[in-house]
Amino acid sequence: MATEDDYTAEPFVPEGGSLTAHREAAAGCRGCPLHRDATQTVFGAGRADARVMLVGEQPGDQEDREGRPFVGPAGKLLDRALADAGLDPADAYVTNAVKHFKFTRAEPRKRRIHKSPTLRETTACGPWLAAELARVRPELIVVLGATAGKALLGSSFRVTQVRGTVLEEEIHGRPETLVPTVHPSAVLRADDREGAYRGLVADLEVAARALSRRTSRHRK
Length: 220
What we know:
Layout: H1 19-26, E1 45-46, E2 52-56, H2 61-66, H3 73-85, E3 92-96, E4 103-104, E5 113-114, H4 119-136, E6 140-144, H5 146-153, H6 159-162, E7 167-171, E8 174-181, H7 184-189, H8 193-219
Parallel strand pairs: 2-3, 2-6, 6-8
Antiparallel strand pairs: 1-3, 4-5, 7-8
């Protein structure tokens, strides 16, 4: 019987079925210890036929409470940046590399403070992300931050080295087009928030142009 000490979600992932079936199955995932403190699993959301998939790190405090990804301040900033870059947020599928909120508390009843997942925890959750990719089959993946990048591209990934570039890589046995950028929460933490926001939009504009080129090739 699968236990959280195995650090893999694989036994909990259905072999077939829709995104809805996977979302329901993920609610019972016990593939690593993160499920114990989190309120609930936060699975991906959006169009099952989305051309763009956005992959972040993990749900935050508000996402953990509501059960949906990118509903907090970082999500609202991301929606604005997507629209400014010419990408419709309503046409995207959004998810995270890790499906449970990892946090720490300085004192009981104090605010829950985000804590980055370990590589082991990210790897444990990998089968869920692989299942989402297999079902959505996006034309483009926007990688939001270092944790998402390492989950998809390996531990040597450095967002500062490749942000705003178009990458062609094989992910889980399928060729994928990816554009990495910073996580929107990094923009909220930046000293020069406006400059950081412009940088995020510029990276997303690269993604929009890459998607446009794919559309043009398909029409020829």
